[in-house]
Specification:
The chain is of the alpha/beta class. The protein has one domain: 3-Layer(aba) Sandwich (Arginase, Chain A), CATH 3.40.800. The protein contains 11 helices and 8 strands. The radius of gyration is 19 Å and the shape is globular. The termini are far apart.
């Protein structure tokens, strides 16, 4: 029984951190437990925790090929198959690789089911966001594509249109690939340009298949883009497209790796601006998607200083609570982190930058690399969606 007045289902299982590629791998599973501990310490009203049921092979096969699923199963026995992306430096084999990966799929699927079938309008799957996984191979630390499975489930269970918003520093290539030619799914990825960052894809001219032209949207930002520019870019692209598309539900990915302290990327986006982007997505869901919103985690490799603040903040925002950027994080959580890891824990929600930005509608600067990227994307996809690309 879900408690009355709940706004957000927070999906959790103590087994989720068992998605573990081993010591030294950037995808450190402790980022999940640190985030969940912070969410609990915050005692957020309106947040209810729900459990995870691992996805079975039939559910995985809604977006993945059977030979690939069998290859992942073999990886659990120590059998590498680099043709399927299993046993590579990015995705080493480990005994629970199949079970742990399908548990993550189950997490995001539980979030989608909760939003679509209960009175709780929002859900957060912090373990989800494995957006690089392809139908027939693992890629970029991602084995199974939980987002793709969840979106497909929503379509199969009555959703006519789903908007997917990807705010990770890396291009959401796997989700785009799965729905490349499906006009029912609008995929929007705001990421560092593939000219400087893995996976090397996601350019403005990539706009969808022949039956879905304009349904794939790619905003490729230059390296070292800072928070105000990043948020300006999101505001210039995402709201007009979502408003025109009028989805039944929004699914979003909030990789925290756009932060300036993340060692795997080259963007410079503060926690302050990342939380502002989460608020923007929340408002888009309220205004254009019947207030139905499924949010996931994703990348993020500054596991103590950044990830818990972004994803716990995302959870609070999902529940209608906007964190005070100057406010202190719970002392009990900080003490527990420092005792457990012998590392300093962040003291405040924000980075001290604030979340201000100048809207794109205020004027286009042809000398600015970010503004040129914005305009390239608007010209590539706005006309196909019936929107004037001018600012």
């Amino acid at each position: 029984m879900v408690e009355a007045g709940a706004r957000t289902a927070f999906v959790w299982s103590d087994d989720l951190p068992r998605y573990d590629f081993g010591p030294g791998h950037p995808m450190a599973p402790i980022r999940l437990s640190l985030t969940r501990d912070l969410v609990r310490a915050l005692e957020l009203p309106g947040v209810v925790e729900i459990d995870v049921a691992p996805a079975d092979d039939a559910v995985l096969a809604s977006v993945h090929t059977p030979p690939f699923i069998q290859s992942v199963r073999a990886g659990a026995l120590g059998v590498a198959n680099e043709g399927y992306g299993i046993g590579t430096e990015e995705n080493p084999v480990f005994p629970e690789i199949h079970v742990a990966a399908r548990r993550i799929v189950g997490s995001t699927l539980a979030a989608a089911r909760s939003v679509w079938t209960t009175d709780v309008p929002h859900a957060v799957s912090i373990a989800g966001g494995m957006h690089h996984a392809m139908p027939d191979r693992a890629s970029g630390f991602c084995v199974y594509n939980d987002i793709g499975v969840a979106i497909q489930w929503l379509l199969d269970n009555g959703a006519a249109r789903v908007a997917y918003i990807d705010l990770d520093a890396h291009h959401g290539d796997g989700v785009q690939e799965i729905f490349w030619n499906d006009p029912r799914v609008l995929t929007i990825s705001v990421h560092e340009s593939g000219t400087t960052l893995f996976p090397g894809t996601g350019f403005p001219a990539d706009t969808g298949g022949s039956d879905a032209v304009g349904s794939a949207v790619n905003l490729a930002l230059p390296a070292r883009t800072r928070g105000p520019q990043w948020l300006r870019a999101i505001e210039a692209i995402v709201p007009p497209l979502v408003a025109e598309f009028a989805p039944d539900v929004i699914v979003s990915q909030h990789g925290a790796d756009a932060h300036g302290n993340d060692q795997l990327t080259n963007l410079r986006v503060s926690v302050d601006h990342q939380l502002a982007a989460a608020r923007l997505v929340r408002e888009l869901a309220r205004e254009h998607a019947g207030d139905r919103w499924v949010a996931t985690g994703g990348g993020g490799y500054t596991v103590v200083e950044v990830v818990p603040r972004v994803w716990a903040g995302l959870t609070a925002i999902s529940a209608g609570i906007d964190p005070d950027l100057e406010g202190e994080l719970p002392r009990a959580w900080r003490t527990a982190v420092e005792q457990r890891l012998r590392l300093p824990a962040p003291e405040r929600w924000g980075d001290g930058e604030g979340d201000a930005f100048v809207p794109f509608a205020s004027g286009f600067d042809p000398a600015d690399d970010v503004d040129r990227a914005i305009l390239a994307t608007r010209h590539a996809v706005f006309p196909a969606n019936g929107i004037d690309p001018s600012y």
